[in-house]
User: What shape does this take?
Amino acid sequence: MNVSLLSLPLRYFLEVARTGSVNQAAQRLHVAASAVSRQLGKLEDSLGVVLFERQARGMALTEAGARLMAHASAHDAQALELVEQLHGLSAQEALRVRVACTEGFAASFMPLVMSSFRQVAPQVRLQLQVALPQEVSALVARGEVDLALKYSVAPEKGLQVLHSAIAPIYAIMPAQHPLARQRSVSVADVVRYPLLIGASGITGRQLFDLSCAVQGLRYVPAVESNFSSALLPLLSGQDVALASYLTAARWVEAGLLAARPFEEVQLQQRRLQVLAVEGREPSALVRQFTQALVSAIEQYGKRKVGRRKATGGPAAVVL
Assistant: This one.
C-alpha cells in the first residue's frame, strides 16, 4: 500500500499538477472529482494564492503553483524514501540512481559513463530516461529522477546546478570538407552548405536561428530531426551538422569528422549542466555517480585541449 506523509490537500494538489486534470487526478486517487476540487479550494484559501489557471484543456500551474509543486515534490520524494526505509526497502532503494538526459548524450557518452560506474559499483541499479530538454528539467523538478544532464542557456527555477561547463555549438562536417581547413567558421560560411539540423526545440537550433536572424541570413535544412544523434552518421560530401564537441567526440577523434567552433558569440553561450532538484540532499550513491559523471565530462575537456594543442588551435576547455 502506498503511504504519503503529505497532507490531503497537498496530495491532491500534486496529483492535479502532475496530470493537468482534476478528473484524471481523481481517477488516480480513487476519489470523486468534487472531492479533489474541494481540497484544492481549501488549499488556495489557506495560502491566499491562486495555484491553478482553469483552462478549457485542463489545469495550468500559476507561478505560485509551480513553486509549491517543486517544494512539495521534493518533500514527497523524501517522505516516500522514509516510508520505504520503514518498510525495510531502504537497502534496495539506496542502491538506485535515476538519471535523465537529452538524446545527444544517450547515444554514446552516457552509456560509457554508466558502464564505467557499474564496474566500480556492480550492485547499483541505474535508471536512464531520455527526453527533450524541457521534459528532462521537469523530470528532475518533479523528483522522478535524481540527476539531469542537459544543455542550458539560462538558470531554471527549482533546480540546483551541480556542475556547469561551457558547451558552445560546433559545426560538424566530414573530415575532407572545405570548411575543415579553417580553424573557425561563421554562420554565413555554414549556410552555404547542406545543413543537417535538429528540431526547433533543441538549444543548438535555437541559438543558430538567433544568430541567423541577427545577421539576416536564411537557410533551408537538408535534413531536420528531433533526434540529433541520428544526423552525425548521415554526414557526407559537403554536409554540415550542429552539435557539441562531446556529442561528436568519438567520430572526431576517429578522424571521420571535423569539429569547428563558430565565431558568433550567440553560439558560444550554451552550457552543459548537471542538475538536481533544489533543497533535497542526494544519497551517497547519487553523489558518487555525480562525481563519476563530472569526472567524465572533465576528461573529455582535457582530451579536447590536447587535440587542439596538437593542431595549433586555442586550448580553452569547452565541450
Summary: The chain has three domains: 8-86, 94-153+275-307, 170-269. The CA atoms of residues 106 and 217 lie 32 Å apart.
